[in-house]
Write a structure and sequence with these properties.
Layout: H1 2-5, E1 13-14, H2 15-28, H3 30-40, E2 53-54, H4 57-69, H5 72-93, H6 102-113, E3 122-127, E4 130-135, H7 142-164, E5 172-174, H8 180-186, E6 193-195, E7 201-205, H9 207-210, H10 227-231, H11 233-241, H12 252-259, H13 263-272, H14 277-295, H15 300-306, H16 312-323, H17 327-335
Helix pairs in contact: 2-3, 2-5, 4-7, 5-7, 5-8, 12-13
Keywords: DNA-binding, Transcription, Transcription regulation
GO molecular function, one term: transcription cis-regulatory region binding
Organism: Vibrio comitans NBRC 102076
């Protein structure tokens, strides 16, 4: 899995995990949520479907904002809630196999979890006879990495407790940042060794623990995506742009900014895959248009306007070129 994850692709995560953070802030810190939405999201941006994907750097920038506006107790409460809730969401969509040892189950879980978030570059590391569960994450900014490290350690601990039915917690922890104040606050009643400013974040797993048989848990809605679906440039570009269509037709400069690239970088990536940005965007837009034509009774002029067309005649011409039917013909055909 590690070799596969070193490929050059746009990093995405299912929006249901971002919704965890937003829901918590909406309930407890709406003022901070408003600040973040103003700076990071376009007007009328909504996340309502767990099938949508978003860019994980949105969460990274949110973490930096929380450090500025919340005290330590509030930040720890936020981390704990998000780790617990996102673990529950992960178990709803990732199928686990009964009868596995913890080591087998963790490996299986990590292989499947990559289709929930492409940032999950987690692996086992064997060092001096000890086994560690570690995460490789590029170090960029201490302000968001501290909360990310604390969240990851808490998430892993809850995951292992859930799989084994125990109250185990790690005795040795590595973090890339200086996340000690978070972890010491979360685990004030526990004894552990914490090593900050390491190259990777990880927890040590005793061999006796890895050999335990795991519990069987119900799964409600298993994801069956495949690597080609999730990791080709065309699909990931469309997934990342989809929530932004509310503001009309994003230019390639806007798309590059959303993805964290320079426009020339995005152009080179598209050229390498023999793709044209306008065609990729048209396909995304008209797939969305077709869905609205079938699932709503909205006027065609309104649908056209929402997707960046000021004149319905231009919209009709473009739709017919793409779909071989006018919008009215397509709607009538689909609705019988």
């Amino acid at each position: 899995m590690t070799d596969f994850l070193t490929q050059d692709f746009i990093q995405l995560a299912k929006s249901k995990y971002l919704l965890t953070y937003l829901d918590y802030l909406k309930q407890h810190h709406p003022d901070v949520l408003h600040l973040w939405q103003q700076s990071e999201l376009p007007d009328e941006f909504t996340l309502q479907s767990s099938d949508l994907f978003v860019l994980p750097n949105l969460v990274d920038r949110l973490s930096a904002l929380l450090e500025q506006h919340l005290n330590l107790d509030q930040q720890v409460a936020y981390i704990r809630y998000c780790a617990r809730t996102n673990l529950q969401k992960a178990f709803e969509s990732i199928e686990l196999t009964s009868g596995y040892t913890l080591k087998e189950q963790l490996k299986d879980y990590l292989d499947r979890a990559i289709f929930e978030s492409t940032t999950l570059n987690h692996r086992f590391l064997h060092q001096l006879g000890n086994t560690w569960l570690v995460r490789d994450k590029p170090f960029k900014d201490e302000s968001w990495l501290r909360m990310s490290d604390a969240y990851m350690v808490e998430f892993w601990t809850l995951l292992i407790q859930k799989l084994t039915g125990t109250y185990w917690y790690p005795k040795k922890i590595w973090v890339q940042s200086d996340a000690s104040r978070y972890i010491q606050k979360m685990w004030a009643d526990r004894s552990f060794e914490l090593y900050a400013h390491r190259e990777i974040t990880g927890i040590e797993l005793p061999e006796a623990l890895l050999g335990l048989k795991t519990q069987t848990m119900p799964v409600r809605g298993v994801s069956h995506q495949t690597k080609p679906e999730l990791f080709n440039l065309k699909t990931t570009l469309q997934l990342s742009l989809k929530p932004y269509l509310i503001n009309g037709r994003p230019s390639i400069d806007t798309a590059a900014n959303i993805l964290g690239f320079h426009p020339r970088q995005l152009q080179r990536k598209l050229h390498k895959e023999n793709l044209k940005y306008t065609r990729v965007l048209d396909e995304l837009i008209f797939d969305n248009v077709k869905k609205e034509l079938v699932e709503t009774e909205d006027e065609i002029a309104d649908i056209a306007f929402r997707h960046g067309y000021r004149l319905q005649t231009h919209f009709t011409r473009a739709f017919k070129k793409h779909c071989k039917l006018t919008p009215s013909e397509f709607r009538n055909q689909q609705k019988g």
